[in-house]
Structures are given as C-alpha cells and as structure tokens.
Design goal:
The chain is α/β, with parallel strands linked by helices and 153 residues long. 37% of the residues lie in helices and 10% in strands. It has a single domain, classed as 3-Layer(aba) Sandwich (Rossmann fold). A two-stranded parallel ribbon has the order 1-2. Strands 3-4 form a two-stranded parallel sheet.
C-alpha cells in the first residue's frame, strides 16, 4: 500500500461511467454515450473502459476522486474496488437510495430518459453494498441533502 494513499474518493474530480455532469473537463456518461454513439440500452463497455483509464491516471498520481457509477451488483462494484485497491486507495461507497417510483419520475424529467425496460432490469439486479466491500459504506436517501446519515465502518 502506498505510504500516503488518497483520502476517500469524495473531494476530487468526478470520474466514472455515471450520468452526472462532471467538472474539470470530465464528461458524464450521458454525454459520452452521445459522443460515442452508445445507446443507453446497449452494452456500456466503451464508456466504462474509458472511465477506468481516467481513474488509473488519477490513481497513479495518488489523487482523490469520486467514481460516479450505477454499480448495481457486488460483482460490478468489485471490479472497480479491485482496481482502486491495486493502487492502495481507500474506498468509501456512497449508496444513494430512491424508491422505484421516484426513480421513474426523475427519469421522465430527463432530456433523454432511460427506457423503462432498462430501469426495470436495473431495479431487478440491485444489491445493496456492505462493509465487506469498502473501508466505509454510507447510505443516503435521495433528496436528503444533509450528510447526516451515519456511515458504516
């Protein structure tokens, strides 16, 4: 492990295949899907590979960052966490939870909504993270702007 590992990934550039807008020239998944011509219902491999390489750049610099992704299963989260651990990074998982109704409502307000069958599939494979996956796991309810939720350590 590096003698000065990055702090939790919560204070640097936003990286990853997530859908949010990203600072510092990093584009979000929706933007990159459009640029690369990848449909939301299709395999997201090209987007994920690009995001992983961006993460490696920051990991090599020992720079903290936020990995923004909808990692629904332990297996998929594990692939990311193994990459981060290989560089000696500390990992905090922040799970933002919403009701299926809220997810569908917010999706309907997007400029480019994700197809309903894709959301249904995503909801069917969701596995909540646990403490065996990271140094810290934090659950936050969608719409709760406070950081009052107590982390699991």
């Amino acid at each position: 492990m590096h003698p000065n590992p990055p702090r939790y990934f919560n204070d640097g550039p936003l990286v990853g295949p997530g859908s949010s807008a990203c600072p510092s020239g990093w584009s979000g998944r929706s933007d990159r899907r459009t640029e690369l011509g990848v449909d939301p219902a299709d395999h997201q491999g090209p987007i994920v590979l690009e995001a992983r390489e961006r993460a490696r750049v920051l990991l090599r610099r020992h720079q903290s960052f936020v990995w923004n992704a909808t990692n629904l299963s332990r297996r998929v989260r594990g692939q990311c966490i193994e990459l981060f651990a290989a560089y000696g990074a500390r990992v905090r998982i922040v799970a933002v939870e919403s009701s299926p109704e809220d997810i569908r409502h917010r999706n309907g307000e997007r400029a480019r909504p994700v197809p309903d069958h894709v959301i249904h599939r995503m909801l069917s494979i969701w596995e909540a993270p646990d403490l065996t996956e990271a140094h810290e796991v934090l659950f936050i309810e969608s719409g709760n702007s406070s950081d009052a939720a107590e982390p699991y350590r």
